[in-house]
Amino acid sequence: MAPDLAVILPRVLIVSRRTVRKNKFVDFVGEYHLDLIVGYGAAPVIVPRVSGVHMLLDSFEPIHGVLLCEGEDIDPSLYDAELSHFSQQELDEIRKLHAGDTAIDREKDSIELRLAKLCLERNIPYLGICRGSQVLNVACGGTLYQDIEKELSKQTDSGRENRVVQMNYENYDGHRHVVRVVENTPLYEWFKESLDSGKMEISVNSYHHQGVKRLAQRFVPMAFAPDGLVEGFYDRDAYNPEEGKFIMGLQFHPERMRSEESDGFDYPGCAAAYKEFVKAVRAYEKKLNGSRNVAMALKFDREAEKRRRSILRSFSVAKNIYTAGSDTISAQESELEAGAEFLEANTALSVQQENRLKQVGATVRNASAYINRLKMNEERQKAARAVMGKMSIKQLSDLVSFYHEMGQLSSQVLEMKLKVLMNEVVHV
Ligand SMILES: N[C@@H](CCC(=O)NCCCC(=O)O)C(=O)O
């Protein structure tokens, strides 16, 4: 069971985050993400955010999906050409308040932006949660607020009632704020039975202080916070999980919207983003393998045809030599190889094939070995017939059913081995 699953499950890449444990760096990924990916039928592959990995992403192929989630702030120089509009005092305040986030991890930025761009180039399913949604927007040319509280609240004239607390360190996991869900979007479909009547609102968690400022052109918003911040978006033209299409970003964490006591989700729709994402990942893998198999089959066909031609050519040269005498052999020896190899490898030829080969002169090289093998076969058959002639009907019918059973068994095992081999070839 295990080897089959290992071959079948599609792979979702997730980049780790760095922290310090017992005086040394360790890499981690939140288990809620991993559990959901496994639960819906894909294999999470953790890409460590260690130096140099951004140059080694080819080694993580095949990639059937990418899930990017939490982490430090994205380096503002990656999305904001004019850099800091903040005074030194403001920057110090931001760093003090969000100390865990404001240390930038350039290696992670670099790995994640490369992965996001790869997904966009190849239409690999991508789910961005929180920082992952910010990475997606930046990869597509959008920009971010470097600090929502300082920038968005400055812009919001409408006053305090629209202000949103995005980070509440006093009530970290219990904190929620409302978002307005946009109709006719996947998010609406997933949460529609939970929307407050007429209000189109759900309450979401929040663990960020950066956020989408200018949404990249290709995206459609799926939810807004009361201060206008985009809380979810997707590429409508690249959305069809059944066909392997999924490019989406969520600023909140549906995987983490759970009751403290029971660990149960706040809404039945919470796991849907993961479910639909993995659905797309699985469909993408199928599509990819399908087209690879066709490409492999075409390659095999072309190679077989090439081989067939060289064998034919070899036989025709052999025929000419046979008809004309043996003087010219050395000049054409290399062309004879294919035919000779073919004869060596195929002892079980039909009488018709054998006559045809003799006729075209294929006995010129290795003829004695070939004839010896044929003779040996004939002798073995003669001996077997003699033994069987002496056996009883019961013994003979036992022998028949034994070989029948063995035949069935070996074709089953052969089929399995070919399947494994085919998968290995496809995954090379
Ligand atoms: N630094 C970014 C992204 C923050 C982020 O990824 N938050 C989720 C992690 C929550 C946790 O570590 O508990 C920002 O602040 O916008």
TrEMBL record:
Q: One GO cellular component term, please give it.
A: cytosol
Q: What is this protein called?
A: Gamma-glutamyl-gamma-aminobutyrate hydrolase
Q: Which PANTHER family does the annotation name?
A: GLUTAMINE AMIDOTRANSFERASE PB2B2.05, GLUTAMINE AMIDOTRANSFERASE PB2B2.05-RELATED
* Annotated keywords: Hydrolase
Output the PROSITE patterns linked to this UniProt entry.
Answer: GATASE_TYPE_1
Keyword RNA-binding in annotation: no
Question: How would you classify this enzyme at the top EC level?
Answer: hydrolase
Q: Name one Pfam family in it.
A: Peptidase_C26
Organism domain of life: Eukaryota
Any single GO molecular-function term of the entry would be: gamma-glutamyl-gamma-aminobutyrate hydrolase activity
The family database entries (CDD domains) matched by this protein are listed as: GATase1_2
| Assigned EC number | 3.5.1.94
